[in-house]
């Protein structure tokens, strides 16, 4: 994928729970210092994959190495060099911010002086010096996540796994947390983040999309957007803005030269053949809507995932 | 052992932040001791009794007096008709009803057999048995007294004491060891110490682990290089310390409040108490490897507590249990510890006297701790 060394190497990894295959022969590579966004619907196997990569869940078959350590043969070695932040707040609510940091520092066996230095660095990083003595349970959602991040970083891991770190926190806190993550990536930490938010995915250096346990697509966002499956040859993407997009949708869908229409907030995203002009499109909805405009656009990641999962479902039902 | 100290210090902070743990450990057991020690008295005395004296002579009055003087019976009412007499038992007013027939003294004086009817409410077997024995004994004593008078009059005797007085041929001289006043507290309170130690440690440890499982912090811990043994010992030791201090508290209450002295060697009792604490903590850990929620942990703990109460010999003597149940008692660690507690505290037993029980307890301890450490995995499933 890139020239940077591969720090996560997953080969044909599977995990079954009873008869259900949650992760299905999944392979992927993540280069060092990447911010790898891992997307997929609920129950598609994101958390299961992370747990296997962290060495707390045994794969049914296949294997993986994280920072060169085998997650099946040597999970404890993996654990020493990674940090993990789960989707649920999992610190001790009845311990103070400082006590939580102390605890994780001691778990990783940090010498006293190192622990003191790391604590101070991390409190700087997450700007929580003022909250040191506050009980973790009394922090608000965003601050809890920042503390959880600080705890996951106490031992200076080179690899950080984050399972939906921004679920349920407000937009400002979400943005702040991502700024922090990029700062870490800039320092050479590799990040593996699952998320539901497309705007977060757009900021990642690499993204992967998992659907029913299978990795459908994986690569740099710009590579994915350029895929011929997303915008087939002889077509282009057009955004039509109008006052009443839901009324315009049925008029455009299936009309001549229009391959696909999707509603995107107050706009419609179309895949049209090159022969269809903007004016021709606007003419078709003239009667129902006002304030019409049309412009060519690049596909967003959401376009990519919608297009690919549709193709994938078609292939599946055909097979 | 990785992370042992980290877990230990963290648990200490939890305990500090949650004073209810300390309340549960130190105050509740003292209450329990006071309740059990004072309220439970298994000696049966003063059974409520109704007397229907249809004879009303000197002899019949003497019989009633002897009845009261035995301390086994307390006359709560007098019946004047047969109906009243029977109804006293049916209504629950009395557990025992004594009917002296009109011809009682006449038969005695004419040297015929006089019978006295005693109705006993058998529903409480313990009270009924005591009443049965006391009433039979009373009849025997009165009969012997009359027989003695008669024998003296005849210048004959079955046996005579050194002073030449008529006496009984066989003289049983029982001597009560260790608890001459037959106080229930002597039997219950040492046993209670074992039970209390188990309750506290079992609940505290099982909850300490399951609470983390519920909160999701255990998953977070699994992702760290904390060692399995370090994690478990870090969880056990703080509660073992609490349990040990608690043991000292209840022993103090036993000696100074209940006046049950420790006759044996305290230096032998202490290490054996620690052995038992570790066993109980092992049980708690084992529960925590099975239970997913705190509620489940509580249910498991209660499931273990019930046989520990009933089958260990804490309340009911194991000797009178059916054979399979008797053997089942040996699968319960507190059974051994009760023997050790009563042995050392009441009978001044020494190491040699207690070897089988110490061995049993040690086996339980090793088995439980090994089982819980092997069952405990740093894996999610």
Characterization of the model:
The complex is a heterodimer of chains A (about 325) and B (about 375). By secondary structure, chain A is of the alpha/beta class. Chain A folds into 2 domains: about 5-225, 3-Layer(aba) Sandwich (Rossmann fold); about 235-300, Alpha-Beta Plaits (2-Layer Sandwich). Chain A is about 35% helix and about 30% strand. Chain A contains 11 helices and 14 strands. In chain A, the strands form 3 sheets. In chain A, strands 6-7-8-3-9-10 form a 6-stranded mixed sheet, sandwiched between helices. In chain A, helix 3 runs parallel beside helix 5. The longest helix of chain A is centred in the C-terminal third of the chain and has 18 residues, at about 300-320. The mean pLDDT of chain A is about 90. Chain B is an alpha/beta fold. Chain B folds into 2 domains: about 5-40 and about 180-375, no CATH class; about 45-165, 3-Layer(aba) Sandwich (abc type-2 transporter like fold), CATH 3.40.1710. Chain B has helices at about 5-15, 20-40, 60-70, 80-90, 105-110, 125-155, 185-215, 215-220, 230-255, 265-290, 295-310, 325-330, 335-345, 350-375; strands at about 45-55, 75-80, 95-100, 115-120, 160, 165. In chain B, the strands form 2 sheets. Chain B has a 4-stranded mixed sheet with strand order 2-1-3-4, with helices on both faces. In chain B, strands 5-6 form a two-stranded antiparallel ribbon. In chain B, helix 3 links the parallel strand 1 and strand 2 (about 75-80). The longest helix of chain B has about 30 residues, at about 185-215. The interface between A and B is medium-sized, with 30 and 26 residues.
Could you give a short description of this structure?
Chain A has 319 residues and is of the alpha/beta class. Chain A has helices at 46-53, 75-81, 97-107, 112-125, 141-153, 171-186, 198-203, 221-225, 245-252, 278-285, 301-318, and strands at 6-17, 20-31, 35-39, 61-66, 69-70, 82-85, 159-163, 190-195, 206-211, 214-219, 235-241, 258-264, 267-273, 293-296. In chain A, α3 (97-107) packs parallel to α5 (141-153).
